[in-house]
Structure formats: C-alpha cells, structure tokens
Design brief:
Layout: H1 3-23, H2 25-55, H3 68-87, H4 89-104
Helix pairs in contact: 1-2, 3-4
Length: 105
C-alpha cells in the first residue's frame, strides 16, 4: 500500500466520522461502543486461546465422580455418626430432640 492511499483513506474516514457525528450524534457513540465490545471479545478469545495452549484442554474437561465408593462408605459413616452421638449424653439428648421435631412436622 502506498502512503498516499493510506493518508487519503484516513482523511476520508475522518471526514465521514465528522459528518456522521454532526448529522446523528448518537451514531458515533453507538459505533464506538460496538467497536469496544468487538475488541473486548477478541481480547477474551485470545486470552482463552493462550490458556488452552499453555495448560492444554485438561482444564476444560470434567472428570466423572466415583460414586460407587460413596455407597460402600455410607453405612460406615452412619455407624461412626451413631458412635459419636452415643458417646456424649448431651449430644444424644439434642439429637433426640431434633428427631422428635422432625417427626412432628
């Protein structure tokens, strides 16, 4: 591209911007906010691309939870809770109150 073409294009763009700003004042504000949103989108996409390239796609993939172990440990957990409640008389009394309130509702 030649410098003269670049300069003439810049002058024509500036003249068009001044013309539009005088004719419709809201158009210039709308165009500048739209351009800002586009640049913001590009910035976010570039940052995401860099993160994905640096860390790989491992961060984006969810790993399924192993619930089979939770089912097996559930009985052990309730046994441990029952042992803890029975070990302290005050705690046992409060737990019995809670159970009685729950049954009344």
């Amino acid at each position: 591209m030649r410098w003269t073409g670049f300069l003439l294009g810049g002058l024509a763009g500036a003249a068009a911007a001044v013309y539009m700003a005088k004719r419709r004042p809201g158009t210039f504000a709308w165009a500048s906010s739209a351009a800002g949103e586009v640049l913001d989108g590009w910035k976010h996409r570039a940052a995401n691309a860099m993160v994905n390239r640096k860390f790989g796609n491992e961060t984006m993939q969810a790993k399924p939870k192993n619930i089979n172990g939770a089912v097996n440990n559930s009985g052990e957990a309730w046994t441990q809770i029952q042992t803890l409640v029975n070990s302290d008389p005050n705690v046992k009394q409060e737990a019995e109150k809670i159970v009685a309130e729950a049954q009344s509702h």
